[in-house]
What we know:
With 466 residues, this protein is an alpha/beta fold. Helices cover 22% and strands 19% of the residues. The strands form 5 sheets. It has an 11-stranded mixed sheet, with helices on both faces. Strands 16-17-18-19 form a 4-stranded antiparallel sheet, covered by helices on one side. A hairpin with a 2-residue loop joins β18 and β19. The longest helix is centred in the middle third of the chain and has 26 residues. It is globular and about 55 Å long.
Amino acid sequence: MRKLLMLGLFCAAHAYGAETTPPNVLLIFVDDLGYCDTELYGCDTVPTPNINRLADEGVLFTDGYVSSPVCSPSRAGLLTGRHQQRFGHEFLPSTAADSTSGLPVGEVTLADAMRDAGYVTGMVGKWHLGVQKQFHPTNRGFDEFFGMTTWGADYVDPTRDDVKAIRRPVRPVPTGNWERGIDTVQRGTTPVAEDEYLTEAFTREAIAFINKHKERPFFLYLPHLAVHGPLQVTQKYYDRFPHIKDESSRIYAAMTSALDDGIGEVLDALEQNGLDDNTLVIFTSDNGAGAADYCSNEPLRLGKQTMFEGGVRVPFAIKWPGKIPKGTTYEHPISTLDIFPTVLAAAGASPPTDIALDGVDLMPYLSGSNSEKPHDKLFWRAGNIWATRDGDWKLIYAADRHWLYDLSADIGEKTNLADKRPDMVKEMTASFEQWNRGNVEPLWPSFGTKGMPRFSVDGVNINWTF
């Protein structure tokens, strides 16, 4: 049975910050993984022993949140430790070759800060924070980069005999003519031909980075494309799930299994190099799963692109042997905005003095030295749609109306209490407005909206902007 991290229940086995050698940091940021797509929260789903291993060897967060329910803004918040509305990265940027939108160059990234602290910095995977030179990872603090700068790519040639794929309809591929096009994989700034299944390729490159830099402190950012579409997987993983009859569900399960394998191989590489005890490993997702039948955010409502819990509450685990007690569960709300200050503090580095971070260092809360909650309130905004969590209360404003929930009794956000508790609506609206005064207008317009019936709430159509 997992232990529960409660107020002052215990202290860490070792004093925080006592390590003489700065820790390595591995930040695994997966894509569109639902709250119930793994076994982390007791779901009867795809076996994920390696993702489970992260939680078993560290702390599992029940109430871990992202700052946006869609890819790019969530990544902007993660890598700056700041609400992306502070600097205008509110919506998805275009990934067209001539697009000028991306993470503003004035923002300090976690990679910038870690490199300044003496770390070698590497990134393997999906960027999605701008495609122009000034936005490129190698110009945003990363010494090394392998991946794509766009929103995603084919994982593999979908016309291969050993590939099971449900192709993207916008890019039909005649047999023998497959190419990634604008989604080309790069090493540094040079396009490369990558024939290996991308999840495996990213695992290979992450391990190579660890092996190469095992003698000095490193920061490795591993934003996997999995399990974002398109649904594509090789026969090796597909064959593991013959009992799943629905083709989309089977491919998605296989993609999840491939991701879990890769995470296990990277963790093994840390152990084989004698780095496991002095490496802080963080695992989470950029947002919840989408609205398709083959993925699951249960018991949460809705998913990606929405402000409901299924869109912003995500799988979240951290391990750091000797610093974080093993096999514990933390139930107070935390945010991906906390990763920036937590990692800097672990590295013994000071945060930038000329910007205000919105996250907090989580280590005092996890060690038991701070018995307070990391956050009293959390906030989200996407155009005219917004949400806030205050304690156990959650308020969402969309389609000119409010939805209010008591998450302590209604984690699935089924019973709207807005009419019964106008006092809470008023109080939480005022709190949001105060927070919102520190934001700026979006630097570019909304990329699009989702307003299909499956995105409606209680019979009310909502055009979710992203």
